[in-house]
Write a structure and sequence with these properties.
heterodimer; A: mainly alpha; ABC transporter involved in vitamin B12 uptake, BtuC; 14 helices; globular; B: about 270 residues; alpha/beta; Rossmann fold; four-stranded antiparallel beta sheet; binds adenosine-5'-triphosphate; binds magnesium ion; transport (chain A); membrane (chain A)
């Protein structure tokens, strides 16, 4: 399975992936409450990127360039990022349920973000993503300590139990902070944001989300063999020559970093990190050389599609994207499970 | 690619005054061993006597509280994991996975210490993996899924994975566990036929007789070390294992073997 793919094959795959992504992004821009012709989308992009000088309606141009394009790019980055986070955590913790949402990382990031946004911790000196990152790291630290010190059962189920406890704690903290300090208006906005919301996304978010995902993707790809080596557990990884502690630290920090960035931009979106890696494993097997890029691609496509649906499902209203991911994700996952069980 | 560790000395693996503790409880303590190139060492002892702990310390998977281990004459702490894994392979007592991997995938993991993020899989890696699978007679199962394998087949896959590391020293923790008698004998023959230094924990004392030297563990201590016939004396068997043992001679070829019998608590006391 790890046969090296020929250079030509690699190039073909790369071109294929980029094409599919580009089509998805185009769809993400064109479809919405006001549908925009794909040709107008392309002309706008040509105007902005190469100053092609097509004469276009400035309103259409504005929708395409200032709203839908950044929104779709962030959706894609977010899907790719969360999928990789789930992949990393599942491989390292040897638990199929591990993902940023279940392990309390998303909840911690939300608390951190709310502390900055509502309470004003840091007096405007600390930005929202920094707060979210600190929250994510604190939450995961607490969960890890709890999992380590509580004796009993197997270590891998321990971390999930600890994660659930951590999520509850941080979600409660977030709710407490909001009730205590936010105005009714603010509270509604924050709750909406916490369920996952791409409405407020502008170009500044794109410049955070895409580099974060690119870094995470490179790091994961660099560590792909190490991730494989955890197949039989961490002792086995160590005897295969992997510096276990260093690898874990780097990769989990990477997952916390990406989760924090994503939560600070779009709120916490569950399910993507859990479902995408499993679905992709059924497609390409369990070696990370393929899993890492494929998960990122499928995650991006999934969230771009979910975003499109969230805009058109109910006329005149945008659903929180977290609702859509769960609504599509759960049945698709069930189907894959049934099919997978039959195939193997 | 880095060069594998080498040494001119005959001693490939040794430890001095090795000890490991969890809080105040010593799991193993005061263990000194020198293992020569090509030697086959058996570690025997009752359940909980510290065999697995000792093997993990020797493999560098756990850090000793006291003493140190030297691999090829170099302190284990001074080597990185990759260098250790290129020289020494370890097969755990239990290692399982839920991942849907094939036998081929599992054995390919053994090449991990020889690959790097920028170093692609090569023909030589293919060659090594193929050999490892042949050595454990599993070539015909290479495409089978891990979860469809029997316990004995899994054990052989683990050994093939260790062999794919092309190690000079092989540590095995109860490799004959879960195997039927034929597979047990086949596996011992296989391991003894390998051109590597082996250290393995075993429970069957008659099987342990095939080793060059035996290390007898009891309550975390090394209580005897030497050729099997010298260390497995009736007195030692009674003290360490709490069983009565007598040496018998096979009339056909004159080979010596152990006859073991249970001792009741009363008998154990009166014999003391
Ligand atoms: N983390 C731990 N904390 C406390 N005690 C431990 C720990 N790990 C192992 N032990 C104890 O240390 C002792 C030695 O364990 P070890 O696994 O090395 O024994 P063993 O000789 O391999 O036994 P077996 O034949 O059953 O495999 C046992 O009594 C075990 O209960
Ligand atoms: Mg043991």
């Amino acid at each position: 399975m790890s046969r090296p793919i020929s250079r030509l094959g690699l190039l073909a795959r790369l071109i294929g992936s980029v094409t599919i992504l580009a089509i998805a992004v185009l769809a993400g821009i064109a479809i919405g409450e006001t549908a925009i012709e794909p040709s107008i989308v392309l002309q706008t992009l040509a105007n902005k990127l190469w100053t092609a000088g097509y004469g276009l309606d400035p309103i259409d141009e504005g929708i395409v360039w200032s709203y839908r394009l950044p929104r779709t790019l962030v959706a894609g980055a977010c899907g790719a990022g969360l999928a990789i986070c789930g992949l990393i955590l599942q491989a390292l913790l040897r638990n199929p349920l591990a993902e940023p949402y279940l392990l309390g990382i998303s909840a911690g990031a939300s608390t951190g973000a709310v502390l900055i946004a509502v309470i004003g911790v840091g007096g405007g000196l600390i930005s929202l993503p920094v707060g979210a990152f600190a929250g994510a790291v604190v939450a995961f630290g607490l969960v890890a300590i709890l999992a380590r010190t509580s004796r009993g059962a197997s270590a891998s189920s321990q971390i999930i139990l600890a994660g659930i406890a951590g999520s509850q704690l941080f979600n409660a903290l977030t709710a407490y902070l909001i009730t205590k300090s936010a105005s009714a208006e603010q509270a509604r906005g924050i709750m909406f944001w916490l369920l996952g919301n791409l409405s407020g996304v502008r170009w500044s978010s794109v410049w955070m989300a895409i580099p974060a995902v690119a870094i995470a993707l490179l790091v994961c790809f660099w560590y792909r063999r190490a991730l494989d080596a955890f197949t039989f557990g961490s002792d086995s990884a160590a005897s295969l020559g992997i510096p276990v502690r260093q690898t874990r630290t780097v990769l989990i920090a990477c997952a916390a970093f990406v989760t924090a960035i994503m939560v600070s931009i779009v709120g916490s979106i569950g399910f993507v990190g859990l479902v995408i890696p499993h679905a992709v494993r059924l497609l390409v097997g369990s070696r990370h050389t393929r899993l890492v890029p494929t998960s990122a691609l499928v995650g991006a496509l999934f969230l771009i599609s979910a975003d499109i649906l969230s805009r058109i499902l109910i006329k005149g209203q945008v659903l929180p994207i977290g609702v859509i991911t769960a609504l599509i994700g759960a049945p698709v996952f069930a189907l894959l499970l049934i099919r997978g069980a039959r195939v193997r | 690619m880095s060069d594998p560790l080498t040494t001119n000395s005959e001693i490939v693996l040794e430890c001095q005054a090795l000890g490991y503790a969890v809080r105040e409880t010593w799991l193993v303590r005061d263990i000194s061993l020198s293992i020569a190139r090509g030697e086959r060492i058996g570690i025997v002892g009752p359940n909980g006597s510290g065999k697995s702990t000792l093997l993990k310390l020797l493999a560098g998977i756990m850090k000793p509280r006291e003493g140190q281990v030297q691999l090829m004459g170099r302190a284990l702490q001074g080597l990185n994991r990759r260098e250790i894994a290129q020289t020494l392979a370890f097969v755990e007592q239990q290692a399982d996975t839920l991942d849907a991997i094939s036998v081929q995938d599992a054995v390919e993991l053994g090449r991990t210490p020889w690959l790097s993020p920028v170093q692609p899989w090569s023909e030589r890696d293919d060659e090594v993996v193929r050999h490892a699978l042949q050595d454990v007679a599993l070539a015909h199962l290479s495409t089978r899924a891990w979860k469809t394998l029997s316990g004995g087949e899994r054990q052989r896959v683990h050994i093939a994975r260790a062999l794919a590391q092309t190690p000079q020293v092989l540590l095995l923790d109860e490799p004959t566990n879960h195997l039927d008698i034929r597979q047990q004998l086949a596996l011992l023959k296989l391991v003894h036929g390998l051109p590597v230094t082996t250290v393995m924990a075993l429970h069957d004392l008659n099987q342990a007789l095939t080793c060059d030297r035996l290390a007898v563990m009891s309550s975390g201590r090394l209580v005897a070390l030497g050729p099997p016939h010298d260390v497995l004396t009736p007195q030692q068997l009674q003290n360490t294992f709490g069983v009565a043992g007598r040496w018998l001679i096979d009339p056909v070829d004159g080979a010596r073997m152990l006859r073991l019998e249970h001792l009741s608590e009363q008998e154990r006391e009166t014999h003391d």
